[in-house]
Specification:
alpha+beta, 2 domains, 7 helices, globular
Length: 217
């Protein structure tokens, strides 16, 4: 099972979509140790600490999602355990936000059409999209330099862009991160990204430890 460790948060890739998550996450309430999630600081298995509900909005529905919190008994630190499609403190689904931002930036459509590209007929404030666009633009210049520096360190003098993309494409579970990262590279370098590598999971874990990583909108 793959996870990403962010500050005070663990991003979980166990469930393929929101329906699968909703149907199964309750099994781990009070039994979090079954997931074998490790403390990012000391590596101890996290135990159940609590739970709370968050609003979730995608292009199809609005619902409440259960979010678990784990506690490390050794470090005495707690961590929220968020599904990959709803990282950070957001209530709007990552794939929908991503589609709206990409439609505006890549296809040069207006804000309202961009929102429809991401959320279909769901009512979402234009101010939300403006915020996502602004924060994405602010973060991408920081993010891309850090990603390329890490990949260059891993692969020496090889073609950084093509090697990086080979690595990303290898893992379908990271499709959402792949699309964002691919867009970041094309936006900053002006080079089209095709295909292409191996320890992408190690690279992405390294990136996730960088402050202001910006992998999530």
């Amino acid at each position: 099972m793959r996870v990403l460790h962010l500050s005070k948060m663990i991003i979980l890739y166990l469930f393929k979509d929101v329906n699968s998550y909703s149907e199964n996450i309750h099994k781990y309430k009070y039994r979090l140790e079954y997931l074998r999630l490790k403390c990012p600081k000391c590596g101890c298995i996290l135990c159940y600490w609590g739970s709370y509900e968050v609003n979730y909005v995608d292009d199809d529905c609005e619902r409440k999602l259960l979010i678990l919190r784990g506690m490390c008994k050794k470090c005495e630190q707690s961590h929220s355990i968020k599904p990959w499609f709803l990282p950070g403190k957001h209530q709007y689904a990552l794939p929908c936000r991503e589609a709206a931002v990409l439609a505006h930036r890549n296809e040069k459509v207006g804000l309202r059409r961009a929102l429809r590209a991401g959320f279909k007929k769901k009512e979402v404030s234009l101010m939300n999209l403006k915020y996502w666009i602004e924060t994405t633009a602010r973060k991408c210049s920081i993010l891309i330099s850090k990603i390329l520096a890490i990949v260059q360190k891993h692969f020496g003098n090889e073609d950084t862009i093509s090697t990086y993309v080979r690595e990303i494409k290898r893992n379908d579970n990271f499709e959402s991160i792949y699309r964002l990262s691919k867009w970041y590279i094309e936006l900053i370098t002006g080079k089209a990204v095709s295909d292409c590598a191996e320890s992408w999971f190690n690279i992405i874990n390294t990136i996730s430890n960088i402050e202001c990583t910006g992998l999530y909108l």
